[in-house]
Design a protein that fits this description.
The complex is a heterodimer of chains A (about 325) and B (about 425). Helices cover about 70% and strands about 0% of the residues of chain A. By secondary structure, chain A is mainly alpha-helical. Chain B is built from 13 helices and 14 strands. In chain B, helix 9 links the parallel strand 8 and strand 9. In chain B, helix 3 packs across helix 11 and helix 9 packs across helix 10. The chains are: A mainly alpha (about 325), B alpha/beta (about 425). Chains A and B meet through helix 2, helix 9 and helix 12 of A and helix 4, helix 5 and helix 7 of B.
Chain lengths: ~325, ~425
């Protein structure tokens, strides 16, 4: 496969981003919101792809790491009064620090033990907010990023602005990750995933590589968490539930867990399912109970079908500039 | 072939355009979002799935039952009410997503009875920017009464701080000189309560905080009982959720303290149906406990609101057991109908808000507490009555069946006032004519 240089990749991504941002002017507010949701989910799913698809570690607790990022961003903005783009960076850093600590433990654990540990994190961490008054308890803390810049005109809606911010963040994340994965770190992680023993025998410091992967993945999750907080306008324990963690893993599996470009597809599917099931339920005239449970059923069926029939993810049109390097 | 098809398509397109033009010209020039000549569209979000769903998932059925009843009797000023129910699984992010749908896609006129504090916070920005009225939100968080931050929002339930202040007054009046211990949930819910008790000047021999959901851990309950015994308390105030009340009853039973300790329960933790379900054969252990409530007991067959709502429930709600959730749903729906009627024959969002502010305090509602809506206040109920739990788990007023003494105050420093409870009579057949 012909390798594209990072600069060309960046240009391509910027082109796509520009097209999306211009296109967002032609859709209604609801679609802008969903677009922002897709971009944020894509970032969060890419953090799982990086961790599971490349370094072979599993995490059922990335929702909690998103919470760390979200809360850090909100606390910094409300107490230190820093502009919100920097709050996102701090959210990412906080996620990274939490991930580093978790990664040290994670590097010693494998398979179900690692899954169990991260699961405990997803269950336990968000409820910490109820223990410390500064974290705002059950009702959470508000995160107000204000109105879109006035220079964009009064027609520029808040949701479109969120979309723009999320798309820019997603482009940066994908560019950085894609470049990183084609360096020796990416190769080490792939070696690690394929066979940790062989990797260790070839001179790779397995523990270090694992901790690094966990830290970077958590940094990305932290950023996604702070963007999620922007979209919601708040952080609260209920916003970062176990369901969120599972949703991210589902998105990653649907995407083909070792396919960075697939995170976008995974994100689109996650956002589209409630919409589709709603349309279906309305069409077939289901009761509230059917409508409420349908998205969960569809997601579960899709997940099982993916694992059974296309364990490496659905065959997608190759997005060369994002595709995995051939081994 | 192709030409033919295209022509046919063209004809259809022209016909549709013409029909649309006709419809458009027939409509009043400034039709309000969600209101047509024959319908009014409303929306509600609450948990229908997930851990928080049991109980709450009965509310939309009750609201729909009441609206169906009103629709069958001519609707509101000739318009049929259509309620769109969305599940948010109690997750604020899902609340925002489905509220986006309700406001931007389904284009509802107003939101009613949306449930949860964080959930309502998450949609505030959207609600405010679109100017959507948000009526009778289902949360005890007193902050929603802040008209600057939430100009279109109307909370209904009394705040936890109000409740604690009133309990403090009740303790001073009826349990002076007793050794009182307090068990409270260690979060904003409990903090609000501590604030209220501090204002009331209530002193406790022991304050026992517990983390939300830790009541499922038997060792936690053991600690409560040990602390109660160690403090020598003869009266225990429980300011937590119903499952915590259930756990406490179990703990006291094991320690053989039933009948030796007087329990006083907050309104959140004293739902009779839920307690009966939780405790099973142990439920009578709570008999004699004092409980604060603002709505009448759903089991009170002498209450005119309860009997009317029960009749509507039997006819329009497919056999759902009448309980506090159904009562809350019906009561919210009845207030909504009065608000829509008062908003005029061509209601707008502005006229709806104005109607609640100017007339809301006079409307019929099941609670014994007055409603404090005015142009300067969005505070809903402010009062509680005290009942004694019977063997069946339902509260009967301490003054005797059907006689209610109401304690009212605010979330701040106003004194607690005690008065005989009065409320507007239930409209004939449960159909408001305001």
């Amino acid at each position: 496969m012909k390798h594209k240089s990072p600069v060309i990749r960046l240009l391509l991504l910027i082109l796509i981003g520009a097209a999306l941002i211009i296109g967002s002017g032609y859709v209604d507010q609801l679609r802008s919101y969903q677009g922002a949701q897709v971009a944020i989910f894509a970032i969060a799913i890419s953090s799982i792809v990086l961790l599971t698809g490349y370094s072979g570690q599993i995490s059922l607790g990335h929702g909690a790491l998103m919470a760390v990022g979200g809360y850090a961003a909100v606390l910094c903005q409300s107490h230190l009064h820093i502009p919100y783009p920097f709050a996102f960076l701090i959210g990412a850093l906080a996620g990274g620090v939490a991930g580093f600590l978790l990664g040290i433990a994670a590097a010693r654990l494998r398979g179900p033990y690692l899954a169990g540990t991260t699961l405990a994190l997803a269950v336990g961490l968000p409820s910490l907010a109820n223990q410390f008054h500064i974290l705002g308890g059950e009702q959470g803390l508000l995160f107000d990023v204000g109105n879109p810049p006035a220079s964009l005109g009064s027609d520029f809606t808040q949701y479109r602005w969120f979309f723009v911010v999320a798309v820019i963040a997603a482009i940066l994340v994908f560019w950085l990750l894609r470049n990183l994965l084609s360096t020796r770190y990416g190769r080490r992680w792939r070696a690690l995933r394929a066979n940790p023993t062989a990797a260790a025998l070839s001179g790779i410091n397995v523990a270090q590589a694992k901790v690094l992967a966990f830290t970077l993945s958590s940094t990305v999750a932290g950023l996604a968490g702070s963007l999620f907080a922007m979209l919601l306008g708040l952080v609260a324990p209920l916003a970062f539930t176990l369901t969120l963690s599972f949703t991210l893993v589902t998105g990653a599996v649907l995407a083909g867990v070792s396919n960075l470009g697939g995170s976008i597809v995974g994100a689109v599917v996650l956002v589209a399912i409630p919409e589709l099931s709603n349309t279906a339920a309305t069409h077939f005239g289901g009761s509230d109970k059917v409508t409420a449970n349908l998205p969960g059923v569809i997601t579960s069926v899709l997940l099982i079908a993916t694992v059974l029939f296309v364990p490496n993810g659905p065959k997608l049109p190759r997005m060369k500039f994002l595709a995995r390097t051939r081994q | 072939m192709f030409v033919q098809r295209r022509t046919k398509g063209g004809i259809i397109a022209v016909a549709v355009a013409a029909a649309a033009a006709l419809v458009a010209s027939a409509l009043p020039a400034h039709a309000e979002t969600g209101v047509t000549g024959s319908t009014i569209k409303l929306g509600v979000t609450l948990p229908l799935t997930g851990a928080a769903a049991p109980g709450y998932n009965k509310i939309p059925g009750a609201m729909n039952a009441y609206f169906s009843y009103v629709n069958a009797n001519g609707g509101v000023n000739g318009r049929q009410i259509k309620l769109i129910v969305k599940d948010d699984a109690y997750s604020p992010s899902q609340t925002l997503s489905v509220t986006n749908d309700l406001i931007l896609k389904d284009k509802v006129f107003a939101l009613v009875g949306t449930l949860g504090t964080a959930n309502n916070e998450a949609t505030t920005r959207l609600v405010n920017s679109q100017g959507v009225p948000r009526l009778f939100v289902n949360t005890g968080f007193s902050g929603f009464a802040d008209m600057k931050k939430y100009p279109t929002t109307f909370p209904l339930f009394p705040s936890y701080a109000t409740e604690a202040k009133i309990m403090g007054k009740y303790l001073a009046d009826n349990f002076a000189g007793r050794k009182v211990a307090l068990i409270y949930q260690d979060d904003d819910f409990g903090m609000d309560a501590l604030k209220g008790f501090a204002t009331a000047g209530t002193s406790f021999v022991a304050k026992i905080p517990y983390a939300a959901l830790s009541q499922a851990d038997p060792s936690v309950i053991g600690k409560w009982v040990t602390s109660i015994v160690a403090s020598g308390a003869d009266t225990v105030v429980m300011f937590g959720v119903t499952s915590a009340t259930g756990a406490l009853a179990g703990g006291l039973y094991k320690a053989n303290l039933i009948g030796k300790v007087q329990l006083i329960l907050g309104s959140v933790g004293s739902d009779g149906t839920t307690l009966k379900g939780l405790l099973g054969p142990l439920a009578p252990a709570l008999a004699g406990s004092i409980a604060a409530s603002f709505l009448p007991s759903p089991a009170d067959a002498t209450d005119e609101y309860i009997t009317q709502f029960k009749a509507i429930n039997a006819q329009y709600n497919a056999g759902a057991t009448f309980d506090n959730n159904i009562l809350v749903g019906m009561n919210t729906a009845m207030l909504t109908v009065q608000a829509l009627r008062a908003a005029g024959t061509s209601p707008t969002r502005a006229s709806l808000i104005k109607a609640i502010e100017t007339k809301g305090s006079t409307w019929a509602s099941a609670a014994f507490s007055p409603i404090l809506y005015s142009a300067k206040s969005h505070v809903g109920y402010t009062g509680y009555w005290f009942g004694k739990l019977g063997l069946d788990g339902n509260a009967v007023s301490v003054d005797g069946p059907g006689k209610y003494t109401l304690y009212t105050t605010d979330s701040g420093s106003a004194p607690v006032v005690k008065a005989a409870a009065t409320r507007p009579a239930m409209p004939a057949k449960g159909l408001p004519k305001n």
